[in-house]
Specification:
Blueprint: H1 7-10, E1 15-19, E2 23-27, E3 36-41, H2 53-74, E4 78-82, E5 92-98, H3 119-126, H4 129-144
Antiparallel strand pairs: 1-2, 2-3, 3-5, 4-5
């Protein structure tokens, strides 16, 4: 896949929450997982090792901030981090707040469901995401400004 036919080069890849010079954070809006985010490297790179050391550190700091905000705001049972890129070989990290009530927990979000979904709990969590996004932007803005 080249930059010209890469879906993460031609579009944000979900609901844009925050964009910096090198990375952006999107809310992936995956059904059944209301707190599923991606930290996407803005320039086309297929692998984490394609970045130099300072860029790798920059990318992982953004991942850590997204994780910290999700933990503080939502108190999930677990945070899942993953960088697969098998379908879309453009560097992006999945940051997923997981809850013991979600349909797949404790299995990965890509595995078979373990139980029926809990729409009322998903909707209650979804209602809190506006504040999560505001806090995420505030933290990422402060970090990007060097504060």
């Amino acid at each position: 896949m080249t930059q010209h036919d890469c879906p993460l080069c031609s579009a944000d890849g979900g609901l844009l929450v925050w964009r910096g010079a090198r990375v952006r954070v999107i809310h992936a809006q995956e059904a059944g997982f209301p707190a599923f985010y991606r930290v996407v490297w803005n320039a086309h790179a297929a692998e984490f090792s394609d970045l130099d050391a300072p860029d790798r550190l920059h990318c992982m700091q953004a991942v850590a901030i997204v994780e910290e905000v999700l933990r503080a705001q939502l108190q999930p049972s677990k945070i899942n981090l993953a960088a697969l890129g098998n379908v879309v070989p453009h560097l992006h990290w999945h940051v997923i707040a997981r809850f013991d009530w979600d349909s797949h927990f404790p299995a990965p979000v890509w595995a078979a469901a373990q139980r029926p979904s809990a729409p009322e709990l998903e909707q209650a969590l979804h209602a809190r995401l506006e504040q999560v996004h505001a806090d995420m932007c505030q933290r990422l803005d402060a970090w990007a400004a060097g504060r």
